[in-house]
Amino acid sequence: MKKIIWIMALLGVLAADERVVIGIDAMHCPLCVFTINQALRSTEGVKEAKASLKTKSATVVVPNDFDLQLLLDAVAETGYTGVITSKEALKND
Question: What pTM value is reported for the model?
Answer without folding.
Answer: 0.81
